From TrEMBL:
It comes from the Eukaryota. It comes from Favella ehrenbergii. InterPro entries: TPR_IFT80_172_dom, WDR19/dyf-2. Residues 52-140 form the IFT80/172/WDR35 TPR domain. This is IFT80/172/WDR35 TPR domain-containing protein. Pfam families: TPR_IFT80_172. GO terms for biological process: cilium assembly; intraciliary retrograde transport. One of its GO terms (cellular component) is cilium.
Amino acid sequence: MNQWRGENDSDEGNLRYFLQNLACHKFEEAIEVARVANRFSQQYFEVLGKQCLKYIELELAEIAFQECKNVGMVFSIKSIKNETEKNVLMGHVAGILFKPDLAQDMFLRSSKPELALDMRMDLQDWFAALKLAKQIQPEREQFICRKLASQVENQGNTSEAQKLYERAYVNPSTETKDKRINIEEHNAQ
């Protein structure tokens, strides 16, 4: 590695040393470089935070995102920091890094496959959500069908939308009295 001169180094020297530390997974040293690289500090911390996330270095990722004032990422990391199951944690990290297919695979391998369905619903990826709901939580199919029907209808495919709306309808006579109020509200939408 090159000799780094800290605050006295040039922008090019800071960048070179920063990238060398990233490549060697010396994230603590990369944080120090980012702190003294005044001109590009924000960009360094963003890159560093994402790299730390890739390697599940959550504490360091949190520090990096705090330094560049990315509150959303800090909040996301704090919300998953105490997760103990590896596949669930990796699914959340993949989701944070905008890799929904990888996140779905990790959630499906975990003890909480419903998180894959929740993620697809959060992304409003109703086709994928419907497919997952059939496998994981069939009781959520009607809600998803209604959302998908609305999307398909807005795209101009009224015949397909009609079929989906019919699948979304819940017959209140087959349900208990306690559930009827929610069912009638669902069907009215």
